[in-house]
Design brief:
The complex is a heterodimer of chains A (482) and B (351). In chain A, helix 6 packs antiparallel against helix 12. Chain A is built from 15 helices and 8 strands. With 482 residues, chain A is mainly α. Chain A is globular, with a radius of gyration of 24 Å. In chain B, 75% of the residues lie in helices and 1% in strands. In chain B, helix 6 packs across helix 11. The chains are: A mainly alpha (482), B mainly alpha (351). Chains A and B meet through helix 2, helix 3, strand 2 and helix 15 of A and helix 2, helix 3, helix 4, helix 5 and helix 12 of B.
Chain lengths: 482, 351
Amino acid sequence: MDVVDVSRWQFGITTVYHFIFVPLTIGLAPMVAVMQTLWVVTGNPHWYRMTRFFGKIFLINFAIGVATGIVQEFQFGMNWSEYSRFVGDVFGAPLAMEGLVAFFLESTFIGLWIFGWKRIPKLAHLASIWLVALGVNFSAFFIIAANSFMQHPVGARFNPVTGRAELESFVALFSNNTAVAAFWHAVAASFLTAGTFVAAVSAWWMVRSKGLPDARAMFRPATILGSWFALVAAVAIFITGDVQGKLMFHQQPMKMAAAESLCHTELNPKFSILTVGTHNNCDGITRVIEVPYVLPFLAEGRFSDVTLEGVEDLQESYQEKFGPGWYVPNLFVTYWSFRAMIGFMAIPMLFALTALWLTRRGRVPDRKWLSRFAVWTIPTPFLASAAGWVFTEMGRQPWIVAPNPDGDQLIRLTVREGVTPHGAEVVWVSLIGFTLAYAALAVVWSYLLRRYVVNGPQDHDSEPVTPTPPDDADVAPLSFAY
Amino acid sequence: MHLQEFWFIAVAALFLGFFVLEGFDFGVGMLMEWVGRRSADAAGGTVDSHRRAVLNSIGPVWDGNEVWLITAAGAMFAAFPNWYATVFSGLYLPLLVILLSMIARVVAIEWRGKIDDPRWRTWCDIGIAAGSWLPALLWGVVFAALVRGLPVGPDKNVVGLTVADVLNPYTLLGGAATCSLFLFHGAVFLALKTGGTVRADAVKFAKVLSIPAIVVVGGFGLWTQRDYGKPWTAAVLAVAVLALLVAAVAVARDREGWAFLSTTVVVASLVILIFGSLYPNLVPSTIDPAYSITVANGSSTPYTLKVMSWAAGIVSPVVLAYQAWTYWIFRKRIFAESIPPSIGLSPRRVS
């Protein structure tokens, strides 16, 4: 493998890994805030216990998200220096603003929330978790606005003197239609992840607490809350995904052609459900199961009279436009990650519907299969998110900045042109270092998460605390303190 | 003043904030083991409650302090893409070690109390120690290497970097300078933020640590001033040395507030000395000065800098206000005696 491959593997591994924790953080912060709000408004101590229970899990997860996030901020310069020089004038600004607007907010107020239970007034404490929730969602916006410049560069023009993309309008950059659609799509996916997590963990505990008062009074309402979050999020994912798909058919037709393994330009092509291939190219593909009408609708919102360009025709036209080269992404990965994304998100939806049905009109289900279903559902939204990112990033290959068909054609860069010219062995060192460290951390993270979930709400969290003024003589015992 | 100069100062200010704030976090992390043990011996309490008192002194604030670094890197990227790209790719391996150790520190701090088990805590303490010592040392090495210059080629990339470019007497002295300074700064912070035997022990440490700090920071400052300084940075160096002496005297007289103010001035002066020596270069080239990345040839366009200036102008005062407010909320001293028993779970489920 040359330096491009090693650097790509490193970026892929560190980013997909980082994005295991991110959706849970983005979704769980507002959910914990909602639980705490329910406690503050209703005074129901069960919501206090749920806030503390999911709050601890949130913090375990938040820590590793922060830790792996620093790598992301450094990695563009470390491994993609030529890319950084080419887009820095445009791409750096959202990253800097993410730090200034989002990271300061979330990490300052997370400190207040963890240590402030007995220190600050109840409403100020409630406000701090809402500010954390706001911060994590702001950060999603800025980083996706940056990523969308790689998918669909707008608001900039190429300067032949400096040889780089230069910002013309930050309003255009931040209102990029790809960014807006992708932001809501990613946020909805995060809410699905966290909603499913809360619903599944609560349902598991509901079954486990069979016959105990907690099953009805605490775990049932939490299951319902999580399920509704997941369900609303799932609907939002369909809508935003549809918007994104229609943009993508126009902006990156090659990505969508690859996602469908559509090799030749066709009128009203069918949506492929199963394709088998032998050589991961157009020659070795057999389309096994297909559905009509779906694909034209996904692309343009009509059921017929839609012509979609195929991989081979696009390859020819790109060679005419951008010179000789191979402009086709990895078909196998693009095709299957797209299907994995959709398939994996169907499972939490089904679970949420099941949970809502079983808890209808005061019912408290206690059947064992529900808790098994719950446990197996937890990883699926994570897998869907990972597949979604793999799809959108791998489908953009060979570009690191894909040319915008309606924009400045000179703003384009291939991954090969963007990499830092390190020796491959140097990047091997870091690839191995990150992979080993991240693998070890994943073991500890999943152990902690499992340990805290299985242990359930703790006894010392059963009594709500009352804040005391800081001049009070004793130092408050803090259940979240180190 | 040009926007380029303004942003050079802004990036310097972000690193200044990072080193002042995270400097004492690193110092506290480095001292946690020793102060915890000695203070517990003196008070007859458990070592762990004393270690936890030390750790909780930075508890509510360290995460926010670390964001200064993230924002500094982001501001470098936005305002000076060539600076960001050359430094981060050129000093790849030291930055990799910094990253891995800072990752260890974050999870070790956050997860330490989650499991109530001595072996678990030992592993976390190792993570905190490694994640404090290594960055404290390596940030000094990195910035000294930058002031000294890197083999930047005509295409703005570092070419043919040797070990001696990164590790040489000057950069090692730079590493020793940040390390000894953060130890001193952290001990003084601990003396200011804790009470009882922890405070008494932190004061003792601060008294001892003031001496290496004066010698090493003074030495590094003089070397920097002699080889890379400007006439006006001599005044900055003088302020640094004066503040070091004031800090040492204040510590000796048990005036922790004054001592902390002084060590803050020392860290700030050192950062100003480094950035002042660098200017107008961002990365001096040791191959040919014509290849150097400078404030003029390394920056973003005036439009981008203008947008960034507006964003920073509007948001920064708010950020500063709420960060200051958290320090005010948690202004009380922490006593090992009032650290509650661990509420972490046992490593395995007890049925």
